[in-house]
Amino acid sequence: MITASSLSGPRLNAEQRRLLKLFGALSAQDKASLLAFAEFLSVKGGDAPVAPEGPRHPDPAPRPPDESVVAAMRRLSAGYPMLERGDLLNDAAALMAAHTLQGRPAPEVIDDLEQLFERAHRRYLDAFDKP
Asked: Is 18 among the domain residues?
């Protein structure tokens, strides 16, 4: 069995060990949710340059039936590359937590995620209308 202490390379700090311990205690579905959310957080910020000719418009893939919250986050992030992830962070985290920790149904959370991305895109477009 591989443990944090048996891994070669740099020693893990207390925060990293705590994260590994918590991760190990999660179900497979919760692990997938945590990894997807970590990926979302890792790309937050101004990674997507704005085209000089004007605002970009979203191109999200259609919502598949029985989509998971994790898949919705990936689909929406890919469909709205022009948005600053930091602007979405707090609300997206709260929605993910409502699903994973409080058991809120995935379709409701995904509806709210879609609305969150749409509102953020409207704010993005409004910024181009200001002098």
From this structure: no
